[in-house]
């Protein structure tokens, strides 16, 4: 199926952020205002302005009407999985019941359908909720969805468990839990074959809000080839030592906001990879894990682009990275118009890092001339402690130096006390206000 063609492109880039006791009152005003401010410092040739305009068009108001908050409306069709044979005892396979209920909800011609998962435990094999549907769908998960932990159930498509494929005007909420039962996969973790617990594929006008997702097989929630996505108040958890368990993964997706979410896993908190544009993350708490990451980009000499990323209001605790941009040698394309602001770092190993020599493979990566261009990156109001003595690291390409890097009001100390250092290669930097540490 179409999805399988895409999973190879999933080199994981994680952006992890930590939710924020520290977010200043402004953090959650209209995110589009946030996008507007502060971009005057570099001329990006107008590209970013276009994204803003586009996002105003798409995110504006009416498009999200009728997304299913008003369950009292008599015209809404309620579809309860229990009425289609789901047992909810945590032992019986409820997959077929979910398929039947989905079919009814999705083909309901009324002004909307609510797919109801009551407060019980539902055991599910891999399942794809396919659209397009006849009306808006609200998926109301009050109970717990549990993944089958029998590997043979995944033989058809080993990379996905729950998929929403091509469903428009979808909301998924309800305070429930999605449990990927990842333990059996972590033991035989395979980097080249990413497993995804929950995937939204080609979903336009999507809300994912107020649920917990835990112990994902690998990546917890992936937004792929989607447009206009609001994600909020998610809790994502997996053990610190679970491999490749990214929290939220964004790939080839435009206009996505992630807010007020708490993410602690064994890999990236949020990872943003190629084809993603206009991403806003606010009030994010990250840790443990690998931090918020743009990239990796440019693996296997690919041409990849990410632009218009804003992280405003995040707290990282004990993560291996804070805000990271990582690209492989030999790639091309760009990572452009990126802002990291109002961020608290607590004992983070690499709080601020750009790595254009990223090499995540067994054999050493050979030196190559081309690189993904990194430009227009603002770091503003970033404070706290570094677990390593290098708090700021820019390791940029000789042939494609990092351009338009602005550091404003930075204060990073070494966790043990004393100053943190900065290490900078091939980066064009501007300092505004008090910046500590400075490049030598
Ligand atoms: C998604 O976020 C945008 C911008 O904050 C907002 O205008 C829109 O109403 C949100 N949609 C929903 C359904 O919450
Ligand atoms: C930030 O996120 C946390 C965790 O979801 C939430 O409890 C808090 O209310 C959020 N803060 C704001 C200002 O929205
Ligand atoms: C800081 O992090 C390091 C390693 O990441 C850890 O060994 C140390 O215990 C942490 N310190 C505190 C105070 O949490």
TrEMBL record:
The active site is at residue 290. Keywords: Cell wall, Cell wall biogenesis/degradation, Glycosidase, Hydrolase, Secreted, Signal. It comes from Flemingia macrophylla. It is found in: Secreted, Cell wall. The keyword Nucleotidyltransferase does not apply. PANTHER family: PTHR31375. The lineage of its organism: Eukaryota, Viridiplantae, Streptophyta, Embryophyta, Tracheophyta. GO terms for biological process: anther dehiscence; cell wall modification involved in abscission; fruit dehiscence. GO terms for molecular function: polygalacturonase activity. Gene3D superfamilies: Single-stranded right-handed beta-helix, Pectin lyase-like. Pfam families: Glyco_hydro_28. It comes from the Eukaryota. This is endo-polygalacturonase. Its EC number is 3.2.1.15. Residues 1-20 form the signal peptide.
